[in-house]
Design a protein that fits this description.
By secondary structure, the chain is mainly alpha-helical. It has one domain. 48% of the residues lie in helices and 7% in strands. A two-stranded parallel ribbon has the order 1-2. It is globular.
Amino acid sequence: MSTIGTRPPTVDEYIKYQYHHRARIAIKPGITGMWQVSGRSEITDFEEIVRLDTEYITNWSIALDWKILFKTVIITLTGKGAM
């Protein structure tokens, strides 16, 4: 597992994946990622989660990782997006 990446799918989720969903597993899963800093529980549409994850994979950079880490700290402290 990585610090930043996609949320790892459960076996039940993976079985239901369509072909384009599998792009999410192109990288190591992470503790935090684009989905977590973009709304967490406020995002309920799986296609939106896939879009955020593939956007991260496509646009990966060290700067993006630092941005996600910074946002993770802020969101954790404020509780934004938590249920």
